[in-house]
């Protein structure tokens, strides 16, 4: 047997390693080709600009956009902010109502909270137990003042993929713009801004084997021509929508990452989803294990599983020097609340506390998956032996009937 | 956040995991926390009726590594102590012994609460009044 190299990384929804091919492409842009792409009058600037233009093409191609529709940002957080606040400011004369969902990333939800404080109105759509929004409810929420529907393409905790084409059709029918946070979906599944009817989309390089701190906001230029109000004042870069000297090396890496993703997506998706299914089936052999969210409309590399009667952080501690995953348990965070995404699916707090998210990636091997199944299963069994809840469950005690001392 | 050696040690080799017969008069059981809060601790003591010394202690915990370690440590400390001395165990001693960071202090509070609940259960079973404790630190 080959030597299994530890620790194993299964947290690819949090971030991904840079692909060595990406790093190699970036290196010259730190030293030799260090120019500012806005320097119009010497070869250093020209070279940088050329590199940016090329990357813009690589990135646009992956999502079926025109290069002119790519606005570089520092990541998806900035893209989410720029899209939502930028539309809110730009289209203030049309209305002030935004529709989003309760399972969005904090970068969207907190931006919407900010909009509410600035006089906007926000509707937060609930999701069903699979994590999907209800299209009829979406349509019914649209009013004359609605300017934007902001629904993510795929969820970062459970991988649920929303019916983006249907959402955009509804938005279009009512003359409302559609923004999607594509951070988790782009490079993992085919995303095409034309076919999907997307008007604005934020995404980020570090979730697709590119560097951290670089991302893009796609802003449609034709039918309709969309504009966002800049949220930072300065030199007027990126067609006036986002000022600031471009992160040339980062953008070059982002471009390369998109090119690789485009080449390899089909084979990679197949390979990774086979491994994910193996992992999921292996872990589902444990008693009282539940997959969270849709298994049908889901990213190929994610599974989120609750192991009832064991707590997520305690569980991770059993193997986290060797295997990196994440949990929706409150004990892992500074807050005392378990994952709001899992709760939005209707999971009880107890199941939310018991969840683990596994995110596979480009360099995940079958050996790693076998090892993970073995280690996680062993730890679940061991901790259940230590769990008073497991003992009660096994004795047939109804845990809901116990009067717990709530805090 | 990295765990202290001692937390890892108690987590990997927990002391006194198990169940005592709660129908026995000399066994006190404390069940604290709630599944919705992500932590439930059950701590039991078995008291020698002639000497008043805790001869055995067992726990089961649903919670993070620090909660498991806190309860494991608590059972170790309880064994051989008189019930009166057991009442003096303070959660901050657990925090110090295990080097718990501030966000994990509530896991030690839970252990102190469990000790007190077990002692009260024992007292009530044996015709004594339950002791009143100040409301412990909130979670
Ligand atoms: C869905 C989603 N949106 C936004 C972000 C934030 O991205 P970034 O780290 O590029 O700011 C993330 C990553 O954590 C994400 O998963
Ligand atoms: S039990 Fe939740 S932090 Fe310890």
Task: Jot down its keywords.
heterodimer, A: 407 residues, alpha/beta, four-stranded antiparallel sheet, 13 strands, B: 139 residues, alpha+beta, 5 helices, 40% helix, 19% strand, binds pyridoxal-5'-phosphate, binds FE2/S2 (inorganic) cluster
Describe, in plain words, how this protein is organized in 3D.
The complex is a heterodimer of chains A (407) and B (139). Chain A has twelve helices and 13 strands. Chain A has helices at residues 20-26, 43-62, 76-90, 106-117, 135-141, 164-173, 248-283, 312-317, 340-344, 349-353, 366-385, 388-394, and strands at residues 8-9, 70-73, 97-101, 121-125, 146-150, 177-181, 200-204, 215-219, 289-291, 302-307, 323-324, 326-327, 355-359. In chain A, β5 (146-150), α6 (164-173) and β6 form a beta-alpha-beta unit. The longest helix of chain A is centred in the middle third of the chain and has 36 residues, at 248-283. The N and C termini of chain A lie far apart (50 Å). The model of chain A has no long low-confidence stretch (mean pLDDT 96). Chain B has helices at 5-12, 65-78, 83-87, 91-98, 105-125, and strands spanning 27-34, 39-47, 54-62. Chain B contains five helices and three strands; from the N terminus they run αβββαααα. Chain B is globular, with a radius of gyration of 14 Å. Bound molecules: pyridoxal-5'-phosphate (PLP) and FE2/S2 (inorganic) cluster (FES). FE2/S2 (inorganic) cluster binds next to α2 of chain B.
